[in-house]
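Entry type: protein chain
Record version: 2
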Amino acid sequence: MKRLMKPLLAALLFSLVLTGCASHDLALSREDAYQAYQDGDYSTAVVQFEMLAREMPGDAELWFRLGNAYAKAMMPEQAVAAYRNSLLRDPQLSKAWYNMGVIQMQTALKSFLDMQDYVSADDPVGVRGLGMRDGLLTLLGQDDTGEK
């Protein structure tokens, strides 16, 4: 029995050391992701937050931060998906609801801005599209080119 205990104890100790190293590495990765985001290096932030979300899939805040990185990297579909993942984990995370809604309105605005390039101004649906465009511009606080 004593001969079995030594290897088991050694394996347990080794496992604890590895777990400590892994959590330390994740903490460093989290710091790196936040720093990349703060520095405006959104592509690096995306890569870092993606890795963290894979390692800690239950962390709503990481999914939210990944959504923000995607949004800043001009990847709106991925941003919305990340915000949805965040909300699956914490449906009361108001900032994820808000940011997801803003991204969706910006995406809709782009559709209505693009629409005016292709649809005749006297088309009834085109006229309604202009109304939608104007409403979204007002909500988002932008001018008629989509700029703030």
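Comment: The two ends are 73 Å apart (CA to CA).
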